[in-house]
Amino acid sequence: MTTLTRSGWAEVQNGQRYVNTLCKHWARKFDIQVNDHGARVVFPKEEDDPDYPEEAIAIFHTTESRLDVQLTAATPTQLDAYWGAIDSHLDRFATREGGLRLTWAPA
Question: Which InterPro entries match (predicted)?
């Protein structure tokens, strides 16, 4: 199976706060591990959906001024779906600060 990867980042203060909020929001749906400088989210495979044949994994890393995300998935559909979910959720959680848009490296 092919593994596809997409990376993104944002220059942001309190990046860990956004990661923690995202992980709390997704805690009942996905396997999540959080530490002081990031998190790991495992999106499950879907047995009956060929677009989601394997787990997808998002790795978040934070510093005082930056949030980095690396997403790996098995198909373009899976990659795009979770990329969109991560981006839109982080933006929504940062509404008070004017939003947060990740800059994604070219695919």
Answer: UCP028291
pLDDT, tens digit (0-9, with 9 covering 90-100), for 68-90: 999 999 999 999 999 999 999 99
**Among candidate residues 46, 4, 49, 42, the one with its CA nearest the CA of residue 23:** 42
Edge-first strand listing for the sheet containing 38-43: 31-35, 38-43, 56-62, 66-73, 4-11, 103-104
The structural architecture, per CATH, of the domain 4-104 is 2-Layer Sandwich (3.30)
Q: Is the pTM here over 0.85, yes or no?
A: yes
